[in-house]
Amino acid sequence: KSFHSDRFFDDVTKFASSRIDLHEQGHLSAYFQENRGLLYMAPAIYNFQEQFVRRLKPAEKRQIMPHIKILHYAGQTKPWKIGEEKSAAHESTRLWYEHLREASDTLKQR
C-alpha cells in the first residue's frame, strides 16, 4: 500500500473519523496498531530522542551524534521555546540553533 495514494488517505481519514483523539499522532498510532503489516520501524537514528542524548556520557555522545539523522525534541522543553541562552547548556539543543543559523544564512542567499 502506497502512503502517497488517495486510497491510503481515504482509509486513514475514515479510520480517524470513527474515533475521538486529540492529536493526529494518536490516530496514526492507532491506525498502524491495527494495520501492523503496513509499517515497519525505522532505525532509531531517524527519530532519536533528545532526552536520551542528554543522558549520554561525553564519549558516547561523540560516538553517536554523527550518526543521528533526526533528533526529536519530545516533551515540553523545546529549544525554540526556551531561547538560545538557556539551550546552550546542552549540546543537543545548541545543535538546533546551529542548524537554525545555517538555514537562515542559506535562505538569505536566495
Write the layout of secondary structure elements.
Blueprint: H1 6-17, H2 24-34, E1 48-49, H3 50-55, H4 58-64, E2 71-72, H5 79-82, H6 84-87, H7 91-108
Parallel strand pairs: 1-2
Structure commentary:
The protein is mainly α. Helices cover 56% and strands 4% of the residues. It contains 7 helices and 2 strands; from the N terminus they run ααβααβααα. It has helices at residues 6-17, 24-34, 50-55, 58-64, 79-82, 84-87, 91-108, and strands spanning 48-49, 71-72. A two-stranded parallel sheet has the order 1-2. The longest helix is centred in the C-terminal third of the chain and has 18 residues, at 91-108. The chain is elongated.
Rough outline? elongated
Strand order of the largest sheet: 1-2
Count the E strands: 2
| Uncertain stretches of 5 or more adjacent residues | none
Structure classification:
mainly alpha
Beta-strand share of residues:
under 5%
Please write the string of helix (H) and strand (E) elements.
Answer: HHEHHEHHH
